[in-house]
């Protein structure tokens, strides 16, 4: 009996080769820009959820890989991203103090 598992999700570039090496067949398609961006956002949510369930260097690497793909999609300059990050850190701080804002009283 043939078992078919449906995924409909973004995969890493070498996954088809891995599936073939396992002697399995597959179907895939190349996403257009809109589907690719939507899939990247879904993938980053998936990777964050996996990290939340089991924090590890491997899961963090997966998150960073998806973020790198998003950066590339938008053709953002990594140096500029770091500059914005530093600017915000200087102006507003980081998250090292673990502060939770409960309310503001006016």
UniProtKB/TrEMBL annotation:
UniProt superkingdom: Bacteria
SUPFAM superfamilies on file: all-alpha NTP pyrophosphatases (SSF101386)
Family annotation (InterPro entries): MSMEG_1276-like_NTP-PPase_dom
The protein's name: Phosphoribosyl-ATP pyrophosphohydrolase
Annotated source species: Halanaerobium hydrogeniformans (Halanaerobium sp. (strain sapolanicus))
């Amino acid at each position: 009996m043939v078992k078919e598992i449906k995924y409909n999700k973004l995969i890493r570039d070498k996954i088809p080769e891995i599936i073939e090496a396992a002697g399995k067949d597959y179907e895939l398609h190349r996403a257009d820009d809109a589907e690719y961006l939507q899939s990247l956002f879904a993938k980053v949510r998936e990777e964050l959820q996996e990290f939340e369930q089991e924090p590890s260097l491997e899961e963090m690497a997966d998150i960073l890989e998806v973020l790198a793909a998003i950066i590339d999609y938008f053709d953002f300059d990594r140096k500029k991203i770091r500059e914005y990050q530093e600017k915000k850190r200087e102006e507003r701080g980081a998250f090292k103090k673990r502060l939770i804002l409960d309310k503001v009283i006016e």
